[in-house]
Write a structure and sequence with these properties.
heterodimer, A: alpha+beta, 5-stranded mixed sheet, 3 helices, 21% helix, B: 9 strands
Chain lengths: 188, 174
């Protein structure tokens, strides 16, 4: 019995150490670049140069486009670092960037598109309000004039900024993509 | 058995488990994706045209509502596969993913220059004699993904029609 228990505890220790160390090494940290409130995982869309990067891509960016086709920025906070709040209205403003096209998509915290009356799930380079090179949109649970991206009434959300066919300069330095500022306005 | 020996055995076992899990993870994850596509398409080497993502879409996380996807789980064991699509109206990319999740080939509308997409997908040993372009996969199985951006809603009907003509067929043109 004693031997059996010792064997079992050794096996559990092997499993715990082996898998635990793998989980730690595949964490989505250390590859994040921050641009204002936006973060980009620079591994996504990369050619897998080794087994760890391949496993990280499988977990966090399966079937993602090659970086030369698209890069992806996430935001869970506004410019002041406050978590995006469904009670508040946000203005996103930016300037055109060196890329084929871009979009801002809103997701619930479950990572899926949210139900909303106008069935609008994104604002894009085509649908944003424009003034010359500058574009603008609002994010709110309350209907807004102009380019309005509906937010949930009572649940958290985050934003994904997709940039298609970014220029080599943006690929070398994601900050050059100039993701939009996220400015909090009035809150209910 | 001494404690030091037990510790060494545990550490050696942990390293082995770590390595096995590391190399097994990507093909396992990819296999799930392949199985899902095969189920929806009714088999390998068949295109499945996804409707535009909405709040009801729950198959993959963070779907883009602005992209029309066509997916194909390919199996080259019986021969190369012919990939075709009509001349794109706007942005179009075709990506080939091997069984270990590697993105092994990309074609886009810039390379097509207004022409229809027509390419062979083959294993290295199948490529000889095939007319160019030939995309090579080192693994017999994987996924092909067409992506077209809906940049202009006015073109949605045309783009949806084009999406339905994106194909993935074994061995020859149909």
């Amino acid at each position: 019995m004693g031997r059996w228990l010792r064997g079992l505890s050794m096996a559990l220790a092997m499993l715990g150490l082996g898998l635990g160390s793998l989980v730690l090494m595949l964490r989505p940290t250390g590859h994040m670049v921050e641009v204002g409130p936006w973060r980009i995982d620079t591994r996504v869309g990369s050619a897998a140069a080794g087994p760890y990067l391949r496993a990280q891509i499988a977990l966090h960016g399966l079937l993602a486009l090659d970086k030369r086709e698209a890069i992806y920025f996430f935001a869970t906070t506004d410019d002041a670092g406050r978590t995006l709040d469904p009670r508040c209205t946000y203005t996103l403003e930016g300037r055109d960037l060196e890329a084929r096209w871009w979009s801002v998509t809103l997701y619930g915290l479950d990572h899926y598109l949210i139900t909303n009356a106008p069935k609008r799930f994104s604002i894009t380079a085509t649908t944003a309000e424009r003034q010359g090179e500058r574009y603008r949109m609002s994010v709110s649970a309350v209907p807004q004039p102009g380019a309005w991206l509906p937010a949930p009434v009572d649940r958290g959300f985050d934003l994904l900024f997709r940039v298609y066919r970014p220029s080599p300069a943006i690929l070398a330095d994601p900050a050059k993509a100039r993701p939009p500022a996220i400015v909090r306005g009035a809150c209910r | 058995m001494s404690w030091s020996r037990r510790i060494l055995i545990v550490l050696a076992g942990a390293v082995l488990i770590h390595a096995v899990a590391l190399f097994a993870l990507p093909p396992l994850i990819m296999n799930r994706a392949i199985e899902g596509i095969v189920e929806r398409a009714g088999g390998f080497n068949r295109a499945v045209h996804q409707p535009r993502a909405t709040d009801k879409s729950r198959t993959i996380v963070r779907p883009s509502p602005d992209i029309l996807y066509t997916a194909c789980a390919f199996d080259l064991s019986a021969g190369p596969v012919w990939l075709t699509a009509p001349p794109p109206l706007g942005y179009l990319s075709l990506s080939v993913f091997a069984a270990n999740t590697d993105n092994v080939a990309v074609l886009n509308e810039t390379a097509l220059a207004g022409r229809p997409l027509a390419a062979w997908l083959a294993l290295p040993g199948q490529a000889a004699g095939l007319p160019a372009p030939v995309l090579i996969s080192q693994s017999p199985r994987g996924v092909v993904l067409y992506r077209a951006i809906v940049e202009d809603e006015a073109q949605l009907a045309q783009q949806t029609d084009q999406q339905k003509r994106q194909r993935c067929d074994q061995k020859g043109r149909l």
